[in-house]
Amino acid sequence: MKQESYELFRSAEIQTILKTLENELQSRNESPFWRERVVPFSWAILSVLIPLRDAKMLFNPEGIAVDELTPELFFRWSDFLSLKTLAFTIQKSNEAGVLLRTKLDETTCKNYKIIDLKILGDYLSRNSVNLENESLDFPISNYNLHQGVSNVIKSLL
Fold first, then answer.
1. Contact 45, 37 (CB under 8 A)
2. What's this model's pTM, rounded to 2 decimal places?
3. pLDDT-derived band of residue 70, with 50, 70 and 90 as boundaries?
4. Half-sphere exposure of residue 54, counting CA atoms within 13 Å on the CB side?
5. I need a surface site. Which of 94, 100, 125, 133 has the fewest CB within 10 A?
6. SS (H, E, C) the chain
């Protein structure tokens, strides 16, 4: 992973990260099939991770506190099932007004501020994720597609 990638995820705004990915896609002359998927997928993930980063409430898919947003944490959340779980965690936390389903300390969780789920929710619903019932599966083909998108993003960083 390039050192610049760590710095981007550690402190850059979402638009800066997305622009960097877009520029890398263009400079590598990536297939339009992947170009059309990388930025929206990254935007969906970052629309939740950046607010968590800025609030110092980052956690990994196991719910364990993480100090900073790194490319590795981004890729952990880019697993489509993990991303779906993140969406439901934030939805439940928004409803409760406290960060739920994590192992962060109680004081930190009580400082939770609502995170807008529109971008992530729209993305997931366009990809056949039922946003009403967490236990319902999505098509395996969508999971496989997103593994491919993650691999393209890894190659860019």
1. no
2. 0.93
3. very high
4. 11
5. 133
6. CCHHHHHHHHHCCHHHHHHHHHHHHHHCCCCHHHHHHHHHHHHHHHHHHHHHHHCCCCECCCCCECCCCCHHHHHHHCCHHHHHHHHHHHHHHHHHCCCCCCCCCHHHHHCCCCCCCHHHHHHHHHCCCCCCCCCCCCCHHHHHHHHHHHHHHHHHC
